[in-house]
Write a structure and sequence with these properties.
Elements (H helix, E strand, L loop, with lengths): L9 E5 L4 H12 L3 E6 L2 H10 L6 E6 L5 H12 L8 E4 L14 H27 L5 E5 L12 H20 L6 E6 L3 E2 L21 E2 H13 L4 E3 L2 H12 L1 H9 L1
Parallel strand pairs: 1-2, 1-4, 2-3, 4-5, 5-6, 6-9, 7-8
Bound molecules: NADP nicotinamide-adenine-dinucleotide phosphate.
């Protein structure tokens, strides 16, 4: 199978100011990719640029909110300048969460989660498809979650957003088969990052329970491996695999366990 090549590639990574997106952008630049790095915190993107100054590739900081259509158009226009409109990799990684029961949450919490985690990546992809069609072994990589395979309590909006991303990724992969664009869905389990510091509208004291966690850099390395191999789907970590495969074997058992 033809592998994806980072050297001289053009990539866009959303959510590049921290966690998985930061490390993935750095790894890509170190391997020679020219990365348009997107997130709201400009100073963090500048840090990423400094950290990759000696890399064979480069990082172009593009500060902005991915839920803004102007930002989505602008960041792709910037990427299009690099190699005559060609895009080899789009990583939809920007994401947010919220904790706490659905019944106590506002409608705005659901709207915001869906805007960032689902509508923004989908609409960015819609705009990017003509550029990806010009790419070299192009890959669209979506950062899902094991919670997009098996939902758990107190994260209903987040699970719904990641289930939506999962379903859409599967449809799109089949639709794009003839075009040569691979859709890679990466589903991490709990990851050590700033994710839980950034949760929105979460009641005080509400915590997230998990089955083991990986550092963000390890998740980024696994994501890069999946991109290089042009995999359709990867589920990360032992705990993550246990959750997903136990649910596939016996959904009723998982329903009983998770209701406790
Ligand atoms: N952490 C976990 O346990 C875990 C588990 C499974 C899957 N994931 C998924 O992995 C992805 C990365 O998460 P992470 O763990 O690396 O968390 P993180 O450290 O909080 O990183 C999230 C990134 O998304 C960016 N972002 C958030 N909202 C944005 C917006 N509206 N516009 C532009 N950028 C935005 C943040 O940057 P700014 O704040 O600077 O905008 C940040 O760079 C997410 O999709 C998440 O759902 C995480």
């Amino acid at each position: 199978m033809v592998r994806w090549k980072a050297q001289q590639s053009v990539a866009v990574v959303t959510g590049a100011s921290s966690g998985i997106g930061y490390h993935l952008s750095r790894l890509l630049a170190e391997r020679g990719a020219r990365v348009v790095a997107v997130a709201r915190r400009r100073e963090r993107l500048d840090q990423l640029r400094s950290a990759t100054a000696a890399a064979s590739g480069s990082v172009i900081a593009y500060p902005g909110d991915v839920t803004d259509p102007e930002v989505r158009r602008g960041l792709l226009a910037r990427a299009a300048e690099i190699a005559e409109g060609r895009l080899d990799l789009l990583v939809n990684n920007a994401g947010i969460g919220a904790l706490g029961p659905f019944a106590e949450a506002s409608p705005e919490r659901l709207r915001r989660i869906m805007e960032v985690n689902f509508f923004a990546p989908v609409e960015l992809t819609r705009l990017a498809l003509p550029m990806l069609r010009l790419g070299r072994q192009p890959v669209l990589c979506n950062l899902g979650s094991v919670l997009g395979h098996r939902a758990v309590p107190d994260k209903s909006e987040y699970c719904a957003s990641k289930f939506a991303l999962h379903g859409w990724s599967d449809s799109l992969r089949a639709e794009l088969r003839e075009s040569g664009i691979q859709v890679t869905l990466v589903s991490p389990s709990t990851t050590e990052s700033e994710f839980f510091d950034a949760v929105i509208e979460t009641p005080e004291g509400q915590v997230s329970r998990s089955l083991g966690s990986w550092p963000a850099e390890r998740v980024a390395r696994a994501t890069l491996s999946a991109i290089l191999a042009r995999r359709a789907e990867v589920i990360l970590s032992l705990g993550g695999k246990a959750l997903v495969y136990a649910d596939r074997l016996s959904p009723p058992l998982m329903n009983r366990l998770l209701a406790r």
